[in-house]
Amino acid sequence: MVDLLTLTLDRQTPEKIQGITQDFTWQWLGEGLLQCTPKSSYAKTIVLSAGIHGNETAPIELLANIINDLFAGRLALAERVLFVLGNPEAIRQGVRYLENDMNRMFCGAYQHLKQDQETDRVAELEQVTAAFFEQSSVEAQRYHYDLHTAIRASLLPVFALFPYQTRPFDDFLIQSLDAADLDALVYHNAVGKTFTHFTAETFQAASSTLELGKAKPFGQNDLAEFASIDQVLRAVLSGQALPIRHKSSIRQFKVIHSILKQSEDFQLQLSADAPNFSTFQKGEVIATQQTGNEVAVDQQVWILFPNPNVKIGLRAGLILTEIE
Ligand SMILES: [Zn+2]
């Protein structure tokens, strides 16, 4: 039994760091890192991560419950899986990050920052993920679900982002997100420095960043709100059929533009608590700054992750259009 969340919160090493249960072998690979391999052959090799942002507790609890159910024999394991609690110190402190946003630090970007425990952690996650995929059966398809909750409310409450890639998107990944009752899929238009961009680009994994609702402290989550994704992840891990979708058709958007904050006078033309997927009509001003204003050029655009408080040079929001 490895209670990965309790070990992480208590800064503990388990008594045994590897073992065998009835249907899988497991290895604790370091703080917040647990690998489980079924005894039988497997078709998928899956990274399941949460807590890259330390205050996004619901997905962390969801993974912890899945791990506990695997060890208790309540959930059968059919696929190889690496569980990742991304930023242990930020999880313990209940904050998004300590010095820098870890989900902007992958693909080697951490090497350009002053070394600290978060740059070290990203380097460790890159190494552990590489070893996990490289040691997996060569026939196994690679997946990565990176689970988040958003800082702000959202007009489309649950959605997934795909990292930019030129190869076709994996059918099973899209089917699983559809089955999880997500409201929307968003396709990035440019390379990023996210954990899912790293796994998609470096290992050709079918990767997606999931935004599953609003961030709340430990103990204040209603995990019933996360039942659909929980059911899907359990079906994926145990090789069972995906559940039936309950919502209307999933909507699809593509990123057409990133708003960059270029000076201190940067302002978004939105209230501070405006939800994700707020819209602008053609000609409306989206943001102002010395270097020039952002104006909606398409008939209707949507804004995702508006945040005027980012550091200069970083992304203050994404502009989307809907794919018909
Ligand atoms: Zn997040």
Short description:
The chain is 23% helix and 28% strand. The protein is of the alpha/beta class and 324 residues long.
Main attributes?
324 residues, alpha/beta, Aminopeptidase, OB fold (Dihydrolipoamide Acetyltransferase, E2P), 2 domains, 13-stranded mixed sheet, three-stranded antiparallel sheet, 7 helices, globular, binds zinc ion
Description:
- It is built from 7 helices and 16 strands.
- The protein has 324 residues and is α/β, with parallel strands linked by helices.
- The chain has 2 domains: 4-238, Aminopeptidase; 255-323, OB fold (Dihydrolipoamide Acetyltransferase, E2P).
- Strands 1-2-3-5-4-6-9-7-8-10-16-15-12 form a 13-stranded mixed sheet, with helices on both faces. A 3-stranded antiparallel sheet has the order 11-13-14, with no helix packed on it.
- The N and C termini lie far apart (48 Å).
- Zinc ion is lined by residues 53, 56, 148.
Average residue pLDDT: 95
Uncertain segments are none
Strand percent estimate: 25-35%
CATH top level of the largest domain? Alpha Beta
Helix content: 10-25%
List the helices and strands and how they pair.
Blueprint: H1 4-9, E1 18-20, E2 24-30, E3 33-38, E4 44-50, H2 57-71, E5 80-85, H3 88-93, H4 117-135, E6 141-150, E7 159-162, H5 171-179, E8 184-187, H6 195-203, E9 206-214, H7 227-238, E10 251-260, E11 267-268, E12 278-281, E13 285-288, E14 294-295, E15 300-304, E16 315-323
Parallel strand pairs: 4-5, 4-6, 6-9, 7-8, 8-10
Antiparallel strand pairs: 1-2, 2-3, 3-5, 7-9, 10-16, 11-13, 12-15, 13-14, 15-16
Helix pairs in contact: 4-6
